[in-house]
Specification:
Elements lengths: L4 E7 L6 H15 L5 E6 L6 H11 L3 E5 L6 H14 L4 E4 L11 H9 L4 E5 L6 E3 L3 H18 L11 E4 H6 L11 H12 L4 E5 L1 E3 L10 H16 L1
Parallel strand pairs: 1-2, 1-4, 2-3, 5-8, 6-9
Antiparallel strand pairs: 4-7, 5-7
């Protein structure tokens, strides 16, 4: 039988969100995976005490785990550390989700159901029928949709939402794509993972979601992260 689902939550200065998002995600996964689940917080040395709050949650809930890292090294390396830990503990499914409620924890069950139903990788998609974005201005919408379109054209893919970070992998996908050699550190990381999965012939499906802007804390997006995505995407195909 497949192992338990593990949800990886990378955090940096998410003290305002971490307890609530763990509680909400735990409630959903308790229903979606009654056989058992784990949520792994990967904290990059948050100076606001996020790691301590996560540790307190782990003391109260046996399904919470915390992986402490000493420095802020980017979302990509945080996820890679989380993936390695989860697979080492026997995870059958590995999920990604932002820690700031921009992804609705209620959708975790639908992503897991899609993979259990036959998909190898399920993507929470903003840009398919039924999906969408709220609380964004026109400029941010243009940058986000334009980034996905750019990656789609350069990489020759049909997937509509390549830059999103709400995903569920079957264990075998992460084992096959050699995730330890992924080059991206910022949000291009999401594009690279999906591209590798498609290149290896895995069945990737898009599950419609509504993305909401964070209500607490500060966004980690920067022009440096966006620039990395611009130059790295062509290298994935032609480099």
């Amino acid at each position: 039988m497949p192992g338990e689902p593990w949800l990886i939550l990378p955090t940096y200065n998410e003290a305002a969100n971490v307890e609530a998002v763990l509680t909400a995600a735990g409630d959903v996964l308790a229903k979606a995976a009654p056989e058992g689940f784990r949520i792994l917080v990967v904290d990059d040395g948050s100076p606001d005490g996020t790691g301590r709050l996560a540790d307190a949650m782990a003391e109260r809930h046996e399904w919470v785990r915390v992986l402490h890292r000493t420095e802020k090294a980017g979302i990509g390396p945080a996820y890679l550390a989380g993936f390695a830990h989860a697979l080492g503990e026997g995870a059958g499914y590995v999920m990604e989700m932002d820690s700031d409620f921009s992804h609705d924890p209620a959708d975790l069950g639908r992503l897991l159901e899609a993979v259990r139903g036959g998909a190898d990788l399920a993507l929470g998609s903003r840009y398919v029928a039924g999906g969408g974005v709220t609380d964004w201005g026109m400029l941010r919408r243009f940058i986000s949709e334009g980034g996905s379109m750019y990656a789609r054209i350069v990489l020759g893919l049909k997937i509509r939402d390549l830059t999103g970070g709400f995903k569920c992998f079957r264990r075998e996908v992460l084992e096959a794509i050699d995730f330890a050699t992924v080059r991206s550190r910022g949000y291009a990381f999401q594009v690279e993972l999906t591209y590798r999965a498609v290149q290896r012939g895995f069945n990737v499906v898009e599950v419609p979601i509504t993305f909401r802007d964070r209500q607490h804390g500060q966004s980690k997006m920067s022009w440096k992260i966006a620039a990395e995505a611009m130059w790295l995407v062509p290298l994935l195909r032609f480099g």
